[in-house]
Amino acid sequence: MLIAIFIGLLLIMFLIGVAVPYALGITAIVGMFYSGSFGVTQMGTVAMKMASGVNSFTLLAIPFFLLAGKLMNVGSITQRIFSFCNALVGWIPGGLGQVNILASVVFAGMSGSAVADAAGLGTIEIKAMEEEGFDTEFAAGITAASSTIGPIIPPSIPLIMFGCAGSVSIAKLLVGGIVPGVTCAICLGVMVAVMAVRRHYPRRKFPTFKEVWRLFCQSFLALLTPVILIGGILGGIFTATEAAAVASLYALILTRLIYHEISLSDLIRTGREVCCETAAIMLVVAASTLYGYMITKFMIPTMVLNFFLSISANKYVFLLLINLFLLFVGCFMESNAAILILTPILLPAATAFGIDPVHFGLVMVFNLMIGLLTPPVGMCLYATARVSKLSFEQMIHGVAPFYLPLFVTLMAITFIPQLTLCLVG
Prior knowledge:
mainly alpha; 22 helices; 78% helix
């Protein structure tokens, strides 16, 4: 009955449209009532657990990374990155499709958000591809698919959420995402090349060294952002949270003092947007902390572990079942909410099967990033459809071929843990 309350009631409230934090809080309190443990003292526990959930130094990384991503979307920074990537890989079969992927990899090292990538770079990428003769559906499809790289390569807001929910090292999670992110980019690049050859898509001429050098110089300061962040974390110069503060400060210096492309009013507007988005995320974090406390108290993770053990004691069978489950969840639940709800339930089972928490975190996050491309709640589908002016049905048709490389990447990350753990100390 407890599982029916903590999982069934939560799903029902999601289906009828109750906002995530309210659904989590109500479910936890109903569980308290059912167990007969809700009283004046427990009301204090509710407040204390919710407050402790957001009282975390690590969570400061979220508003700082949001600010850095939004500042980088202002002015010509995205255009500079796109132009340099075009000179670098635009001559490969697939042309601007390959540029689209590489630009997403570079932008991933700045924003950590798939939706920010799709909305920010998407406008430039899709317009450029249409002008070169690419089908709009293809352009929108690869834009949406490549945006999923953002939350894998550091910085990554979903990985920070997983680390906080599961008490896993944020720095190790961020470093662990580097190779899987590059693997995803390579798989998407192969698919783009195959489709481009079949459809006779154009590509640019091989660039001269002078042209590459000129564009590199123009975009050098923007390209330094991921180098500073990843290098600083790998070198132990600063923590993941400190890296977020460095990223936002650097983005502010770049856009305000060097490029002079953001006004004071733009800065105030951006700050308000970051505050609103951070508040929404923190409300979910607070409610999910209470929910996680209650499911742990009533031993729901142990029940889930026993369920998986009743099916098989093989960790690879467990990983396969987890993939199928998370792909299904990703179709109906927002990724950050899913991470905060499911991590306290699934991570103990994964560790009991001998799976490294960092490895499991990347598997979980990448599954849910694919969910950003699946209806009916695929946020990247909606964001890209908006900037490409396609219908939702056309958007799904455009992104469909790219599910294959994403699933290949998912299987590689799942069953080759070295891809995730090779750089983790």
